[in-house]
Amino acid sequence: MEEAMGRRLDEELGITTTLEFVYKFSYQARYGDLGSENELCSVYLGRCDQPIQVNQREIADFRFINVDDLQAELTQSGDNFTPWFRLEWERLGSEFSAQLARHSGNV
């Protein structure tokens, strides 16, 4: 899995970095009349200290945001984020805060 993750980082963002596996989760989400998702996802943490070269065929948009600003944005405008992201961000903060801090530079 780590090899595939590295390949996707290079293909989608043009970067290489060391990743740390944190946990897996599954979710189901319905999107109105458009359909639904039933996903098994793996959560990895890593740190990027190099320029991003986005593959626009894969990624429409991206941005960097620090942990504190992300938490504030989730609190103020949580509906701008997918339900699964909100749940997993909460889990990362409560169960894996040391790992998150290590990778975010907030040690």
Strand content: 15-25%
Give the C-level CATH assignment: Alpha Beta
Q: How is the largest sheet built, in terms of strand order?
A: 1-2
The major β-sheet equals: 2 strands, antiparallel
Find the CATH superfamily.
Nucleoside Triphosphate Pyrophosphohydrolase
Oligomer: single chain
Structural class: alpha+beta
Backbone shape: globular
Rg estimate, integer Å: 15 Å
Helix content range: 40-55%
CATH topology: Nucleoside Triphosphate Pyrophosphohydrolase
Write down how many β-strands occur, each being a DSSP E stretch of 2 or more residues: 2
Instruction: Provide the succession of SSEs.
Output: HEEHHH
Low-confidence stretches are: none
So, CATH architecture? Answer: Alpha-Beta Complex
Number of helices: 4
End-to-end separation in angstroms reads 27 Å
Structural domains: how many: 1
